[in-house]
Write a structure and sequence with these properties.
The protein is an alpha+beta fold. 59% of the residues lie in helices and 17% in strands. Helix 3 crosses helix 4.
Length: 98
């Protein structure tokens, strides 16, 4: 039986060793608390462990919210960067055939 480990690392070391930390968390199920000036600020936890902690339903809701917000942020960014055109109400009605 594998024993999960809770590690604590400061932000500087976390940046320097992120790939290794990420691999350890995802493959072994260990958790890492990232600290700033000795205070915990972030938790690095595998998706499997998160699902077990919060339950299947909440996990699915969380992922849905994450992907929905991410998609919306990308669309807003595209509008501000001129990649997408903002349509007037009249243009929307025309495109929808109203």
């Amino acid at each position: 039986m594998a024993v999960n480990v809770l590690k604590t690392v400061n932000t500087r070391d976390a940046k320097r060793n992120f790939t290794k930390l990420n691999r350890t968390v995802s493959e072994k199920g260990d958790m890492t608390i990232i600290t700033r000036r000795g205070k915990p600020v972030t938790a690095l936890i595998s998706m499997d462990k998160l699902k077990k902690l919060i339950g299947e339903k909440k996990f699915k809701e969380l992922l849905y919210e994450f992907y929905t917000v991410s998609a919306l942020e990308n669309e807003i960014r595209d509008v501000f960067n001129g990649k997408e055109k903002i349509l007037s109400g009249k243009e929307v009605k025309k495109e929808l055939g109203w």
